[in-house]
Amino acid sequence: MSRGRDYLEVRGLTVDFDGFKAVDGVDLTLLQGRLHFLIGPNGAGKTTLVDALTGLVPGTGLARYGAHDLLGLKPHRIVRAGVGRTFQTATVFEELSVLQNLDIAGGVHRRAWQLALPRRGVPAYVDDALDAIGLGDLRDRPAGVLAHGQKQWLEIGMLLVQDARVMLLDEPVAGMSAEEREATGELLQRIGRERTIVVIEHDMEFVRRFADTVTVMHAGRVLTEGTVAEVQADERVQEVYLGRTTDAVGVDPEAVAAEAAGEGA
Amino acid sequence: MSAARRTPLATALRGWGGLLGIALLALALLVVAPAVLSDFRLGNLGKYCCWAIAAVGIGLAWGRGGMLVMGQGVFFGIGGYAMAMHLKLEAAGPGNVPDFMQLYGDGTMPGWWEPFRSGAFTLVAIVVLPALVALVLGYAILKRRVRGAYFAILNQALAVTFATLLVATIKQTGGFNGLNSFPTFFGYNLYDPVNKQMIYSIAAGLLIACLLVVWHLGRSRFGELLVATRDAEERVRFLGHDPANIKLVAFVAAAVMASIGGAMFAPIAGIISPSDVNAAASILLIAGVALGGRASLLGPALGAIAVGYGQSALSESFPNHWSYFQGALFIVVILLIPAGLASLPPRLWAALPRRGRTRKAATA
């Protein structure tokens, strides 16, 4: 219904770490209903960009979502505003069951005093998320025993439960098998129709298969933006990935090397 | 749907087993102990129950919430002194001034003593005062994301400050001697063994009530969130909660419990003094909780009772060396059973019948 109406607008976003600009004047418009991929070499500032949008590091500029400027909100307020994220390493609560992990993410559906009550039954929004991520058979297992890929799905399920309209996913398919990647991509396509989804990714195969829009970042800036074909045809992108980066965005090669060494892990 | 109905046995045991444990403890404290113990021993057990009440709160804040509350003596003292002030005024009679003020001072009473003439005010103050203090302190500390050792040191410093303040204000609080000799408790003669037993029963009952509160919190969504905050505070932020608020609730609840423990301690022990609320007393509470098992339901209470009993028994035989035992005990627990005695039965249980259970699970 509201497809395409909801969007996250980023203007001039800059993250400055003591003079080093990890993100440097980034402009992005992220539309609902498309799978956005954010790619770029290590140290390009992709994760830092997401960190700034979710309140983990302070940024300057503007990140408007609905009536909010995300840059002025605390992390939990950003979540309440409908913007959620996952992390490179899955951070589910290992001792809680799959069901409990999903349930604990449902704070947006509850008033504070309701926290004093025990869980009774399974709320509809938890059931829906469980169905969407396909972990129904494992609902009572502790999350700690899940396979790596299943943990990432559980995290995506937690975002569904917390009603995230914007999902920022940091390398969700890293370490997954080919079938798991395929399943993840299809899951993102399914849930992405009514949401704004941004995926940080290194695996170009996965990007080619599922991306609607690709943004290439390099040295804290947006290098180029477009469909997979457009981006692949861009010479500067090829140069960045081959390492000949000097002229691409007019930065000092030593700075790039230092950045890669510092953030290259 | 069939999977939905099948509650795992372990979860059910954890939930209702806790209630069973509380019921057994209630039976032991409220029925068995008064029948078999002498008045003197029962009075001692009453003191241990007061420490146990504070320990239950520590179990919540430290065991479940991850906040090492090393200064619970402050809140124990707030409740203890509030109650003791009322009892002193009750002993002095209407319009009169507590005896020690005539002894140490000029016989005039500070204005802030006056409201404690009212029993109702005192009872409310025992709950509200520590809650307010904990709310203000906790807000200032937790919102600034002070945690770990810094949180513990800050708490410990509060206990030191509080005790020092009490010692320094002899004219207002009885100083080093504290407040003592209470002949009556809300009109009941405290020299009458029947009334002593009644006060013991109130303390034991309050301990059971606090355990029920913590049991309920453990089952609630708040309980899950508190443990989640302990284990991954940053992650909880990205669930849309401010972890500081979650911890604040546990901190305030623990403070109120400590205060209730202190309030019952004063009439049972017949005295409340700076040495009952200082840093050493605070650490003794922590030691009991560590011994019993800080994250378990009954561990903190049983641990505190055990430490109290050990203190009495050993100090009767070795009056000057009890503190060495205490230190050794703490070291042994931390080294050998960091999760406390409560972790031993589950570990044994896990070691023994595992085969039978997995077979059952496989056929189910």
Automatic annotation (TrEMBL), chain A:
Pfam families: ABC_tran, BCA_ABC_TP_C. Coiled coil: none annotated. PANTHER family: CONSERVED COMPONENT OF ABC TRANSPORTER FOR NATURAL AMINO ACIDS-RELATED, HIGH-AFFINITY BRANCHED-CHAIN AMINO ACID TRANSPORT ATP-BINDING PROTEIN. SMART domains: AAA. Residues 8-244 form the ABC transporter domain. Keywords: ATP-binding, Nucleotide-binding, Transport. NCBIfam families: urea_trans_UrtD (TIGR03411). This is Urea ABC transporter ATP-binding protein UrtD. GO terms for molecular function: ATP binding.
UniProtKB/TrEMBL annotation, chain B:
It holds the Pfam family BPD_transp_2. It is found in: Cell membrane. InterPro entries: ABC_transp_permease (IPR001851), ABC_transptr_urea_perm_UrtC (IPR017778), LivM-like (IPR043428). The chain crosses the membrane at residues 12-33, 45-62, 119-142, 149-168, 174-191, 198-217, 248-272, 284-307, 327-350. It is a multi-pass membrane protein. Keywords: Cell membrane, Membrane, Transmembrane, Transmembrane helix. PANTHER family: HIGH-AFFINITY BRANCHED-CHAIN AMINO ACID TRANSPORT SYSTEM PERMEASE (PTHR30482), SLR1201 PROTEIN (PTHR30482:SF4). This is Urea ABC transporter permease subunit UrtC. It comes from Nocardioides oceani.
